[in-house]
Amino acid sequence: MSQKHIGILTAGGDCQGLNAALRGITLSALKEGWKVTGIHDGFLGLAEMAHSELTFADVYDIAGTGGTILGTGRGGGKAQNTEDAVAACVESFKALELDALICLGGDGTQRFASYLHAAGVPVVTLPKTIDNDIAHTDVTFGYDTAVHVSVMALDRLRTTADSHHRLMILEVMGRDAGWLAAGAALAGSADICLIPEIPYSLEAIVEYTRKNIKNRRSALLVVAEGAISQENHRLGLTPKKHAEAIKLVDSIPELTGMQSRLTTLGYVSRGGAPTAADRIFATQCGTKAIELVKEGRFGVMVADQGRQLVAVPLEEVAGNPRLIPVDHPLIETMRATNICLGI
Ligand code: F6P
Which of 15, 145, 149, 339 shows its CA 20 to 30 Å from the CA of 126? Predict the structure, then answer.
């Protein structure tokens, strides 16, 4: 068994499961007799040499906690451009005398990690994000919890929808992908679900509301923050945060006569304790990362493919976000249960 020194960092937005993954990585590295250094605040911290040793005591009870004990950030520090940021990170990697760097992050992190690998840093990455939009993995940690929190919100909104005979709108995060909205709508028994992958028509929503909802006098609509109307899509416009949700809450009462109210869930879905499923998956990703370091397999991301953990080359992952295919089982199930997709 050769002694190794591993660096770990969390980059991009926080999400649930990061601490469970840090715990998995650290405990399994310590079991090998290796040393573990936690880099603070993402690549920014690496560039600026902000770090501390991770011990058993630091991680043994953190699987159930939200956020990241290492802190996180977007970007590469004081550097003016990517090239300088990469150079600063490579320099720190050498100065810290690390043998490998494990990066936990979303699409942006995968991309920056691939640059580090190309610059000679032995890198392994893990897939985290509530958006579930990382290429070549069926799932990312953080997603299950974010769906769970969104469903809890829908369950609570339903009581007001029923009591006041309203159409309650819930806007959820997800960036350019509709995974979170689709998962929440299906599990939360929503009536309407609008996702970026399927530009919606207001007329179709109005028609569906008249036919299916008006008599019942209560409904739930989930809209992804990246959803876009067919009109704006045709004009090539990029969705503006909250704009579509505001348009819906203004237009629906006018066009259907039904009262409507908007709730923006935002960061609530990204914070707090992870579900058991996210804790387990994140821990497994962490221990798999150490296995890959042991085997000397670098420039790869740990991915879940058909419930098997595999290593996929970073260059295939980076800059290639995974949207929901319109014939995905999640979408097919929504169609089969007559959830309106806005078309
Ligand atoms: O990628 C996760 C996510 O929460 C997206 O759903 C959201 O659009 C974005 O991050 C918000 O990023 P920030 O916290 O940097 O504004």
Answer: 149
Q: What predicted TM-score, i.e. pTM, was given to this entire model?
A: 0.96
Q: What is the CATH number of the domain that holds 149?
A: 3.40.50.460
Ligand 1 pocket check for 73: Cβ under 6 Å = no
142 lines ligand 1 (CB under 6 A): no
Instruction: Give yes or no: residues 261 and 293 share one domain.
Output: no
Tell me which residue has its CA closest to atom 16 in ligand 1: 13
Cα of 13 from ligand 1 centre, angstroms: 6
pLDDT tens for each residue of 214-264: 888 899 999 999 999 999 999 999 988 899 999 999 999 999 999 999 999
The verdict on the CB of residue 131 being under 6 Å from ligand 1 is yes
Q: What residues are annotated to the active site?
A: 131
* Residue 330 counted as domain residue: no
In a domain, 18, yes or no: yes
Structural domains in the chain (count): 2
Determine if ligand 1 sits within 6 Å of the CB of residue 174. Answer: yes
Is position 149 within any domain?
yes
175 C-alpha to center of ligand 1: Å? 7
**Together in a domain, 51 and 62:** yes
Domain that holds residue 302: 5-141+274-317
Gap from CA of 146 to ligand 1 centroid (Å): 12
Structure confidence by residue, pLDDT tens digits, 268-315: 999 999 999 999 999 999 999 999 999 999 999 999 999 999 999 999
